Amino acid sequence: MTLKERMRKVVASQAEIEADEERADALRSVGCTPVEKLADRTRASVSGVIRSVVLRPREGVPALEAELYDGSGTLDLVWLGRREIAGIAPGRRVRIEGLVCQVDGRRTVFNPKYELRPRPGE
Predict the structure, then answer these.
(1) Nearest to 25 by CA among 114, 101, 92
(2) CB 36 within 8 A of CB 73
(3) Which InterPro entries match (predicted)?
(4) CA neighbor of 68 nearest in space, from 87, 84, 91
(5) What average pLDDT does the chain have?
(6) What are phi and psi of 32, to 5 degrees?
(7) Where do the domains of the chain lie?
(8) CATH architecture observed for domain 3-117
(9) Per-residue confidence at 26, pLDDT binned at 50, 70, 90?
(10) Choosing a second label site near 26 at 20 to 30 A (CA), which of 7, 20, 93, 121?
């Protein structure tokens, strides 16, 4: 680690440190693409941590929505027809696969395949 990198870590905010850790973890996940590099209408695999989970019906159909953060950006995950999914909770690390699209200017994946990953220290 260079002196410049050490100094950056000393003066970095907690959010910057967490973002660096998430980016490093996502890079270690083989085959995953950083959120900031996701192209619209492409299949992708992304690894990160769930920041929030909300039940938000869409046109009368239950929909579980989650925000995934990988240190480079956020990705909205939407499971249509679901009220809850065991293990999908804030703070949980997951790896998802699905088709990326834009909804109201935000990257979104509907009904992604997911793999629960261990939390740090587990």
Answers:
(1) 92
(2) yes
(3) NA-bd_OB-fold
(4) 91
(5) 84
(6) -95, 150
(7) 3-117
(8) Beta Barrel (2.40)
(9) low
(10) 7
CA distances from residue 65 to 14, 21, 28, 72, 90 in whole angstroms, order as listed: 26, 24, 26, 20, 11
How many residues can be counted in the chain? 122
pLDDT digits (tens, 9 = 90+) for 73-116: 999 999 999 999 999 999 899 999 999 999 999 999 999 999 99
DSSP state of 71: S
Of 66, 70, 15, whose CA–CA distance to 37 is shortest? 70
User: What is the C-alpha to C-alpha distance for residues 38 and 68, in angstroms, rounded to an integer?
Assistant: 13
Span 28-37, mean pLDDT?
A: 80
More confident residue, 81 or 10: 81
- Asked if residue 112 lies in contact with residue 85, where contact means CB atoms within 8 angstroms, the answer is no
